[in-house]
Design a protein that fits this description.
The chain is of the alpha/beta class and about 250 residues long. It has one domain: Rossmann fold. It is built from seven helices and seven strands; from the N terminus they run E-H-E-H-E-H-E-H-E-H-E-H-H-E. Strands 3-2-1-4-5-6-7 form a seven-stranded parallel sheet, with helices on both faces. Helix 1 packs across helix 7 and helix 3 packs parallel to helix 4. The longest helix is centred in the middle third of the chain and has 26 residues. The chain is globular and about 50 Å long. One of its GO terms (molecular function) is oxidoreductase activity.
């Protein structure tokens, strides 16, 4: 997957929702999907960041995107219902969902974890991902072939000290993906995970403030795996957890 090269029009006529689209991997994924022909729906909590990505996509001459400002920490089921209704009304279907938005919270021993911080991390990284996927399922069933990508982490496969609620949330993400993938079986919807690995993002800098960021992969370098799982070339791939970087 790391060397996958998508055709220029690989995502033509597809409608793809990207959460956390304002910066980091979400921003680059949105731009990349648009470059390959997709109409991208940009979801994030900071409108000004989404507008910048919107402007980049339009300036490049890619299909005109849409913006959905939504803070997943405070989102309710009505927000998700309204989102699904709007997508169905405007686009008639949804071909892809990249559940990219996550929060790191605070790193430290689980014994010392603040309950409210724990709950916020689980709300954004687990509950919101589950709800947005659940409510968008009916719209994705209207697509010929729909792909859902959850965002995992190395600390969601092997527990590591001091990663606390973030690690637990990513273990939950892996389990959610596997359960959902088993339920959809061989239908028009497939569900997989991507572990981006150590990447040059703001979240990584918060977790490792002393790290030399120039030694890290950029979000752009991870895009072959993100393109592969969103394109029809992965139509038979379901229930897999892929690494965006060579181990």
């Amino acid at each position: 997957m790391h060397t996958y090269q998508a055709a220029e029009n690989a995502l033509e006529n597809k409608v793809i929702l990207v959460t956390g689209a304002g910066d980091g991997i979400g921003r680059v994924a949105a731009l990349t999907y648009a470059k390959h022909g997709a109409t991208v729906i940009l979801l994030g909590k900071t409108t000004s960041k989404l507008e910048c990505v919107y402007d980049e996509i339009v300036a490049a001459g890619y299909p005109k995107p849409a913006i959905v400002p939504l803070d997943l920490k405070g989102a309710t089921k009505q927000h998700y219902r309204d989102l699904a209704a709007t997508i169905e009304q405007q686009f008639g279907k949804l071909d892809g969902l990249l559940n990219n938005a996550s929060i790191l919270g605070a790193l430290g021993p689980l014994e010392h974890f603040c309950v409210s911080t724990f709950e916020n991390i689980m709300k954004v990284n687990v509950t919101a991902q589950a709800m947005i996927t659940k409510y968008l399922f009916p719209v994705m069933r209207k697509a010929p072939s729909a792909s859902v990508i959850f965002t995992s982490s190395g600390v969601g496969r092997q527990g590591r000290e001091f990663w606390g609620a973030y690690a637990i949330s990513k273990f939950a993400t892996e389990g959610m993906m596997q359960t959902w993938a088993a339920e959809v079986g061989k239908t028009n919807i497939r569900i997989n995970c991507i572990n981006p690995g150590a990447t040059r993002t703001g979240m990584r800098a918060t977790a490792y403030p002393g790290e030399d960021k120039d030694k890290l992969k950029t979000p752009e370098e991870l895009m072959p795996t993100y393109l592969y799982l969103m394109s029809d070339d992965s139509a038979e791939v379901n229930g897999q957890s892929l690494d965006a970087q060579v181990k």
